[in-house]
Amino acid sequence: MASDRDILPSWVKPSHYSLSIFDIEFGGQFSYQGKVAINLNISNTESWSEIVLNTLQIKVHSAELVVEGSPREVQNISYNEKQQRVALDFGEKFQYTGEAVLNIKFEGTINNVMAGFYRSKYVPKGEVAASVAKDDEYHYMFSTQFEACDARRAFPCFDEPNLKATFDVDLEYPEDQVALSNMPEKEVKSSSKPGFKVTQFERTPIMSTYLLAFAIGDFEYIEAFTKREYNGKNLPVRIYTTRGLKEQGRFALDNCHKVVDFFSEVFQIDYPLPKVDLLAVHEFSHGAMENWGLITYRTTAVLFDEKTSAASYKNRIAYVVAHELAHQWFGNLVTMDWWSELWLNEGFATWVGWYATDHLYPEWNVWSQFVTDSVQLAFAFDALRTSHPIEVPVYDGLEVDQIFDHISYLKGSSVIRMLSAHLGEKVFLQGVADYLKAHKYSNATTNDLWSALSNASGKDINSFMDLWIRKIGFPVVTVTEEPGQVSLRQQRFLLSGDAKPEEDETVWWIPLGLHTGSSAANASGHKTTALTQKEDIVRDIDDSFYVINKDFTGFYRTNYPPQRLAKLGDSRHHLSDPNKIGLIGDAYASAVAGHASTAGLLALIERFQDETNYLVFSQIAASLGSVRSIFSGVEDISEGLRQFHLKLFTPAVEKIGWEYKDNEDFLTGQLRNLLLTSAGISGHEPTINEAKRRFDLYVSGKDKSAVHPSLRKTIFSISVKYGGREAYEAVKNEYLTSDSIDGKEICLASLGRVQTTELAQEFLAFNFSEKVAMQDKHTGTVALASNSKVRPEVWKFIRENWDSAVHPQLSGNFVVLERFLRFGLNKYTDASVADEIQEFFKNKDNRGYDKGLAVVDDTIRSHDKYKSRDEQIIREWLKTNGYIQ
Q: Considering Cα of 790, then 792, then 794, then 799, what sign does the dihedral take?
């Protein structure tokens, strides 16, 4: 057994599972019975009597091992709950190598924690099949979520990614419902139980346990077909929903069949299964899950109504559909060898998901969005001491859940984008296609990918990418100017700004993307293409203009001298959108870390009053919003920054207006949402008055069209902030009665704008009631945590209700609990709060969310340090520029 990971004995390997689920209790305890026959290959040359496999919350009734036609009954069944295993002892030791069959009868429960085989509650639309499980208020559908290590919650199995096998699945369920699995139906038979039937599904390809999926519910579907033929047929593509929602799957359906064809061409391998099903699941811990042939989605990531949904969800759906389809090849066809290489799945699927979205919607400018969202979020996480390398040692299942994070997804995809830009897309994708062909239906490592890319490009990929994958953190390149040349120095970037020598030993290969010329309009690439040592001098620089990291494809920060930052601000109209976004993000991060000052950031963004691009404005709002949040407790600075914010945003707000025009492009609509929300929350009186006017018309029922679906969050948020209890109750009622797919998320985020401790505590109590689904409990909490007026109430609530509500409700799924704590507590800016959090959790068993707590601690202390250092600098700048009297 490898010492760096807790894995099953390597001498037993499964090759095939025949799984039957039956006698499901549709109500009450939601129990079910199961049988599984596992074909094994045994290679132990010593005497043995025991086989160990994974289970969690499963009761094994009986087991027999069939060796050369002779059955051996289990003599002892013992569970190790901490390791999530069951040991089956077959009595006296014996010697045997070769094939065997392990037959197990077991019992499980369809839980309500969004892991394993679980149930989702929903309020149905229209008629419902009579047999559907229900209680007084909700109906239930059943589905699975097995990644990372939760197949073991559904049936006994060898639940590790490199223990691939094929699967036959049989499900018994009521005749008036629908059952789905990875593969199409093979045979449907009547059950011996009246009113029930049994569906046997076709055998799956060889795959990991975490990709197995099945679902039972009152489902209906819409269908399309791929334009390309696969084995002589156009593949059926379906969106499944509970009854009454299928038409909201049209947008996803239209994307899905196009993306399947696109990836089949890009990867040079046809989609390998006979069908593609997408299932909308009413309660879901993540955004979606790439189960082979039966992809499951949170409803807001797959359903869209042209009349009632906010347009921003179109962008999300297009990307998430593409991301999960990318996994059908990158992850499912070729799987990482162990969870330490999760980034191979998630980093690549993130990058290629945006690649496909850009292919379908070039007008969305998605690579600028990638820099605004993905790259900046990856930087924020990776700038902490508590970060981890992209490829990180993973000991067991509880650890792997915590690396489904911004490093695996966003830093991983950012580094892939950097490599793709360096090699060129065509060469890069050829290497990826070669990698997939070489390892299909098996497992692979990071080195296997580097090898394929090296062969395709003729370059030693490992020599310059290895450190990006295996070392923690990323660099900041500090620029010093001299006539005709610049000195460059790389060092590890930490948000706290205090990297010790032993933390700053990595020398990254840094693609410089250096462009210079007599002006921004005619700059061209410099002959020096990379920084490969700690310090270097680059000559032949035209002092008139230069920019580093053109189009922001390199994963590093750049710290320019203050006067150069100002000059780049003056040249902003000749910079690409990704460069503008990167420039602002770098200036903010450099200020927080102490490499530069906030005065330089404010002077830079003051120049952007004439900006018109949504994604650039989004970065301005994010960076300025963070500064305002950190200094929200310093009264004069807080007011000065508010005035600065209003001056910056008012011209654009007045220009864009409230009305959506026919055929208006997507990004203009997004800009309107951003500007109106930002201005209204910052106290722009005309915006507040118009929002309240529209809100009153909407909630009174006089004119429901007064609130455009895409402006619900804007208008609800402003109204809750300035409308007191009356507006709070109205939005809460909207939450309870909304039947739009995105309505509940929008209302919860808006309710977080309350301004009194009384309403904040009421909202937190409501948030932990049965009225708010487990999947959504972080949404309102994060909104409250981002609201400086009531932020202390979040920590107070967690502290006072940890044992009675927070831990009992969320600890059944540590992914949910860790996310709740990390995003609910990371907005504080006083080290004293970090001390309180540390003290509160020090004697608790924090395994499963300890990394989230470490991120919170590091973030708070870094912001506290920044606040102390730059307070006087910001005050002076605001006074000098007339924002503080």
A: negative
